[in-house]
Amino acid sequence: MSKHFQPASLAGAIAIVLTSNTTFAADQTIELDPIVVTASKSEEKASEVPARISVINEQTLTQSPIAALPSLLQQEAAINMVQSGGYGQISSIFLRGSNSNQTLVLRDGIRLNTISTGAANIAFIDTTDLKQIEILKGPASVLYGTDAIGGVLQLISKTPEKTSAFITTEAGEKSTYKAVIGADLVEDGFYAQIRGQRLETDGTRVTDFNQSNLKTADYDQKGFSTKIGIEQKEYAISLDYNQNQGTTGYIDCNLYNLDYSCGGLKNMSQDFKNEAINLKSRINVTQNWDVNLRLSQFKDDLNQNDANWDGSYDYIQSKTKEADLNAKWQFTPEQNILMGITRQNIEGDVVSYATPYNGDVDSTGYYLQHQYQQPGLNTQLGLRVEDNEKYGTHTVGQGAIRFQVLPLTSIYANIGTAFKSPTLNQLYSSYGNVDLKPEESTSYEIGLDQKLNYGLTAGLSLYHTKVKNLIDYASSAPYYFSNVSKATFQGGESYIAWQNEGWFSKAAYNYVKTENDETHTELNRRPRQSFTLTAGVENEVYGVSASLSAKSSAKDYQQNTPGYVTVNVNTYWNVHPNVKLFANVENLADVEYKTASYQAGTYYINGGRLASAGVTLRY
């Protein structure tokens, strides 16, 4: 893959920005108490949430533009990120032992989980315009409805704060290149934002299958986003549009042995396109009442370019439309009530291995939440009634409390139920069953957070989740999707963090034991132990940091996947208020680690070192 680079043009651009007079903007280090919105649909400090929530901040998101979302999520110890290869390959989130379709993925409230598998195609989601990623662990169906059994992963986009423009380029090994250009306009409460980006890479091997004619899986992606809005004390309105599209290579079986194992592979490719539209508004009716409305649509399409072994061409065309209206009443200085209604329609047109199906499902959710907030005590109680046209009415609830037992010590506890509705694939495919019930869960959690001397903080959480009515293929005829099993996830996580005058570090450990309660076997792709460590120094001029992610071995479909350790290194240097240079090394030790089983004796591999360097010019 060729890349064209013009040194004269770059030198000219640098000369222009060097002539301007602008002060340095400090880079962010690990923020120990960030503001989050996912837990209650309102802004609050992470330390006051009566649940465990973590944040991937803007500094981490921008330190390497070519870092894909699956790579960024590896920094969270509670997540096992399984990617079947490198760039653009199928990626699955296993949060606290839950399945990949039991974690809800949002972008500013827009549901990104697909109608076919129920999981989000996170390998195709670009992070260019994100401010932070919030990871809420534990059930959240009261506020968000289906899919939030394991938790919620929410992508929070940036809102312009000042008029500016920038261009960023980064190039690295494996012919990997990304360019981002953007501009912001802010004036008297009005703002406008525009972003464009392009990524190309030759990619890496997908499996360790020994076949000389297999190519690496290349990836080509481009995207565009824009946002306009007005933010005033009495009202606000914004319109956000985001689109990403491209082509990704992958492999599939081309030759089957007599035992139906794969005897040969072939390179294939598919086109993808995702598009999100989000209209949000807020009106402060009185000093104590505000009303919020969100209208959103998410389209997620995949089209296969190469025929399957049976000569068919697969495609998935999906659309999720949602309207959410809620009102918040602050009826005392310490208490508020949030009342809301969500109307959702999902529809899909799918062909899978020459088997087509069409389907759509309507649902309406009614939710109520009460919060009590004062220094040292925070409570949250909620109830949701979901009316789904396929399985009828379903009710979930949640209660949580955080209490400051000492000036530097707080404890929290929560209990909640959640659910996951059947996907269109489970309802309408050739193995579908329109009589499926939703998967249901009950979760318990307790935790402690402790501030220590010398800028240290630490925390510990213990959790237990039981899920029933799990949807899977029936083990006996007739062979179709059924509510066939139960499962239990239980474990704990801990962290210790330190920050002082630009220096920072954070270590996190997660242990989870999963079990199929019917067969008494461990669930696939859930390593029991996970450890992450990030450390470095950052200030207005320079920054150096390193992050380590380690996973223990995990049970898989064909054979166990071994544990692995990866290390990333990131650096930057603000040579001028308008010029930033940066360099990154992903997977420093050049480890081709095994992430999932492909077939007996063969694994998907994800890895190889990716060293890169780039520059940001800002005005």
TrEMBL record:
Cross-referenced InterPro entries, in alphabetical order?
Beta-barrel_TonB, Beta-barrel_TonB_sf, Plug_dom, Plug_dom_sf, TonB-dep_rcpt-like
Q: Which residues form the signal peptide?
A: 1-25
Q: Which residues form the TonB-dependent receptor plug domain?
A: 46-152
Give membrane topology per the record. Answer: Multi-pass membrane protein
One Pfam family hit: TonB_dep_Rec_b-barrel
Which top-rank group of organisms is this from?
A: Bacteria
Q: Which GO terms describe its cellular component?
A: cell outer membrane
Report the residue ranges that make up the TonB-dependent receptor-like beta-barrel domain in this protein.
202-588
**Subcellular compartments:** Cell outer membrane
Q: Give the family per the record.
A: Belongs to the TonB-dependent receptor family.
What is the name attached to this protein's record? Ligand-gated channel protein
Which species expresses this protein natively? Acinetobacter populi
